[in-house]
Amino acid sequence: MDELSILELFSGIGGMHYALKESQVPGQVLAAIDINTNANEVYRHNFKDSKCINGNIVGLDSSPYQKVNTILCSPSCQPFTRNGKQKDVEDKRNDAFMSLCTLIKSGSFKNLKYLLMENVVGFETSQMHDIFIDALKSSGFYHREFIISPHQLDIPNTRHRYYCVARKEHDFSFDSGCIHKTIPNYDHLLQKPQLLLDYVNSDDSEDLTPYFLSKELLEKRFNILDIQTNDSRNTMCFTKSYSNYIEGTGSVYCNMTRQELDDKIAEIERNDMNLEMKEKLKLRFFTPMEVARLMRFPKDFTFPATISRKSQYKLLGNSINVTVVSELIKVLHRR
Q1: Burial group, residue 259, by CB count within 10 angstroms (0-12, 13-18, 19+)
Q2: Is residue 138 domain-shared with residue 250, that is, in the same domain?
Q3: Cα angle 256, 261, 267; round to 5
Q4: Would you please indicate which residues are annotated as catalytic (active-site) residues?
Q5: What does residue 114 show for φ and ψ, rounded to 5 degrees?
Q6: Residue 24 vs residues 74, 99, 330: alpha-carbon distances, Å
Q7: pLDDT tens-digit map of 126-161
Q8: What radius of gyration do the chain's Cα atoms show?
Q9: Distance, CA of 276 to CA of 261 (rounded, Å)
Q10: pTM (2 decimals)?
Q11: Distance CA 332, CA 141 (A)
Q12: Low-confidence ranges of the chain (pLDDT < 70)
């Protein structure tokens, strides 16, 4: 099949680019476009030889991109998030995605043959979803839809996301008309089951003191913490608010086994939730680089020193799981 000539839209910190590299599907990112200046700084820091453009996709001129045969994109999810206002097509943050759908439907990208899109669960029931699928069908694309989480691929993190793969010329060999909950031809037997210990900082190269939970959090919020241990096989989805808020934004880490932790918590409960005993657990937030590893960014991925810790968490919360997208790129490219 064709080598992929890629336009990466809503490119963020480069998750799609890393997914292409991991997939080993032959291809090249011709340009990446995002409106977020921090995300673009991270992208350029890690892909120094790539063209990364700071720009709004609303009103995008497709003429410089006529060599593009593939679009990889992760449009704004806020109009569809469970905790948001769910304004759908009325949300101005959808304007860029709407512009992209118009370009696809009008055939503005003359050589476009492949597309992969990621968004939050909930997108599949939106009006914007119907507009997007109509644009694909009107332009002669075959498409398949998925809801997949990394933990299904033996990665210790839950992050359910909606995905759509679409291509022209050749239909996919598996069923249409439903949202798939597994990736075709993904062989779990070839994968090594992974523990959280494989992803956490295992040396003394970083001062972890700033990540330990404060006395106030331990006193007031201990009972709602999702505490994961070295032998855990899962963590909660990390959101852009991780470390800024506690509830529903991601797990915290304890450098013990589950049994050791359970024994310690039982002792704490017998002692009226003693604060000093809680402190001895040394509970902490996962570092940004640990979150990045759980989202399967490679070891050579780094943040520039100019990006604050808070911004790092926010950028990761808006990003993708590299390995899940890598597997879907294989599906997209496979006859």
Answers
A1: exposed
A2: no
A3: 140
A4: 77
A5: -135, 145
A6: 20, 30, 8
A7: 889 999 999 999 999 999 999 999 999 999 999 999
A8: 21
A9: 15
A10: 0.94
A11: 12
A12: 1, 78-92, 188-193, 202-204
Residue matched to tokens 């914007």: 128
Residue (of 146, 137, 147) closest to 167 by Cα position? 137
How many Å apart are CA 285 and CA 251, to the nearest integer? 7
Q: How far apart are CA 43 and CA 52, in angstroms?
A: 7
Question: Which H/E stretch holds residue 180?
Answer: strand 179-180
Q: Which distant-in-sequence residues (6+ apart) come within 8 Å of 278 by Cβ?
A: 218, 219, 222, 268
Which string of DSSP letters, residue by residue, matches 80-143?
Answer: G-TTS---GGGSGGGHHHHHHHHHHHHT-STT--EEEEEEETTGGGSHHHHHHHHHHHHTT-EE
Tell me: do 235 and 184 sit in the same domain.
no
Same domain assignment for residues 170 and 101: yes
Q: For the chain, what percent of residues have pLDDT higher than 70?
A: 93
Query: Contact 297/42 with Cβ under 8 angstroms?
Result: no
Q: Report the side by side order of strands in the sheet with 227-228.
A: 227-228, 252-253, 284-285
**74 in a structural domain:** yes
Count the domains in the chain: 2
Instruction: Tally Cβ neighbours within 10 Å of residue 78.
Output: 17
Q: State residue 1's pLDDT score.
A: 66
Q: Counting every residue, how long is the chain?
A: 335
Burial of 286 (0-12, 13-18, 19+ CB in 10 A): buried
| pLDDT at position 177 | 86
The string of DSSP letters for 97-112 reads: HHHHHHHHHHT-STT-
Range of the domain at 227: 207-286
> How far out from the chain centre does Cα 265 lie?
32
